[in-house]
Amino acid sequence: MPRSQRNDNSIDKTSTIVADILLRIIPTTKREREAFTYYRDGMSAQSEGEYAEASQNYYNAMRLEIDPYDRSYILYNIGLIHTSNGEHAKALEYYFQALERNPSLPQALNNMAVIRHYRGEQAIQQGDPETSEAWFDQAAEYRKQAIAPAPSNYIEAQNRLRITGRSKEWEWRKRNIRSK
């Protein structure tokens, strides 16, 4: 039985009903509906911390989904699972793949920045300040890219840029965008 049919949560049940109605109204193929069901079940399992089940559902959705935009969100969620499991290299691979299909995915850019920042902190703990600065610089670049399309969504990223002294270029760009 698909997870979407097992939900005990009334919000999940409501979401499932609304999604099912939309799938009936919007013209979709059987393959698209099946891909969406796997995706939805993956999100449900992921929200409950059932990462193995979520991954399996996402991989099944990827097998069926052909739309690059929709695939980008599946790839992004697989990246989230790898991030949660501490598999940062794998997570970055999935975030890159998601961005190849959908360059307007600031959450992937922000997560890539967080991973790079974490690696910078690890380099400091290992006594390698030069490497840490390189990681922090990369993190700052990804943060700037994430902030650009939706500045109000990434206040913490903006604060991190200010704290680390890497916000000057961003502040200049932000002022020029506002003046146009």
Automatic annotation (TrEMBL):
Swiss-Prot/TrEMBL GO biological process terms: photosynthesis
Main subcellular location: plastid
Protein's cellular compartments: Plastid, Chloroplast thylakoid membrane
Stored Pfam families: TPR_1 (PF00515)
One Gene Ontology CC term in the entry: chloroplast thylakoid membrane
Ion transport recorded as keyword: no
Signal peptide coordinates: none
InterPro entries: PSI_Ycf3_assembly, TPR-like_helical_dom_sf, TPR_rpt
Superkingdom of the source species: Eukaryota
Family: Belongs to the Ycf3 family.
NCBIfam families documented for this protein: PRK02603.1 (NF002725)
UniProt function note: Seems to be required for the assembly of the photosystem I complex.
Record-given protein name: Photosystem I assembly protein Ycf3
